[in-house]
Design a protein that fits this description.
single chain; 320 residues; alpha+beta; OB fold (Dihydrolipoamide Acetyltransferase, E2P); Transcription Regulator spoIIAA; seven-stranded mixed beta sheet; 14 strands; 26% helix; disordered N terminus
Length: 320
């Protein structure tokens, strides 16, 4: 191989403002949203909501009492922060008073949804369930499909897994995702796997790491790990510490009939890429090294910046 690089508190809020229930608009389109259950809210009671998504500069998606509400909270609001809301009544459009006072534990009960999330987290922590996503169908129909087709199918395998359902809802509400795509996700299928998806969603959100397992094509298993790291963890890219870019790692492992175990590990940050190819068999290593220049040329042709490419054996003992 050539040694040269391949290619070089919340402000600006009205004290009292009407908050529109997301389910109202969606129900008109025949879509199954769980609306805010006003029967579970007590007038004058203080509740805690969590900002789960930004819809535009001043509009946010707030999780409250097991449902989502669209609220205008101002530009200084951040996803993930909690807001205290006093229910002032109103039907069918509820009204809340934004408060700096935290909800009193002695007067606030945990909603069924919060109890369910806590149960899922405890179950995962006790290792009674796995946070690995098990795909129910093959990603693509054949290994001989065009590269572009396989890449598209891999992306769809993640997009339609149901793991990113809430963010897709936020996109739907602002017109960035069609209703037909939302309806195809597991949460809206008759035999929904929601019970197993929720702990995986929570773990993925908390760890910024996704473990995927299933058939990449019929009768070929694949293990896929995707993780995201902020700039403070980009040890492979010291230059990234001065930017706001995050590093995305993708690692795919296949146990192929003739080539044996092969792993491709890709790191991408700020438009730069590093690739590590691992194999068990000596013949597979030789083949990968022989064909590596074609990979470099292909990446160059697609406009990718490859900083580093290595081909080496797995750390565990090689097969005879």
């Amino acid at each position: 191989m050539s040694t040269k690089p391949a290619i070089s508190p919340v402000n600006n809020i009205s004290p009292i403002a009407p908050m529109h229930v997301i389910g109202d608009t969606a129900e008109e389109l025949g879509f199954r949203f769980e609306q805010l259950n006003l029967a579970q809210l007590s007038k004058g009671q203080l509740y805690q909501g969590k900002v789960v998504a930004r819809l535009d500069d001043q509009s946010f998606l707030v999780a409250l009492n097991g449902s989502a509400i669209r609220m205008a909270l101002g530009k200084e609001t951040h996803v993930g922060e909690f807001v205290s809301l006093r229910y002032m009544g109103g039907f069918p459009t509820p009204t809340f008073l934004l408060s700096s006072q935290a909800p009193s534990v002695s007067h606030t009960s945990i909603s069924p949804s919060a109890q369910l999330i806590n149960q899922f987290l405890n179950t995962t922590d006790n290792k009674q369930t796995t946070n690995r996503f098990e795909a129910q169908q093959s990603v693509t129909s054949s290994p001989f499909n065009p590269v572009g087709k396989i890449a598209y199918d891999l992306r769809q395998a993640l997009v339609m897994s149901g793991l990113f359902y809430e963010s897709h809802l936020a996109e739907y509400l602002v017109g960035k995702r069609p209703l037909s795509a939302i309806l195809q996700e597991p949460q809206n299928q008759p035999a929904s796997t929601l019970t197993s998806l929720v702990p995986q969603q929570l773990q993925t959100l908390e760890q910024q790491r996704l473990l995927w397992h299933g058939e990449v094509w019929p009768r070929q298993q694949m293990e896929w790990e995707i993780s995201r790291h902020d700039r403070h963890h980009n040890q492979q890219y010291p230059q990234a510490a001065d930017t706001d870019e995050t590093m995305i790692n993708s690692r795919i492992t296949l146990h192929l009939p003739r080539l044996g175990e092969v792993t491709a590990s890709i790191s991408h940050v700020n438009g730069h890429m590093r690739i590590e190819l691992l194999a068990d068999k000596g013949s597979t290593l030789a083949l990968l090294k022989q064909q590596s220049q074609k990979l470099v040329e292909s990446l160059e042709a697609s406009g990718q910046t490859l900083d580093h490419l290595t081909v080496q054996a797995h750390e565990h003992p090689a097969q005879p």
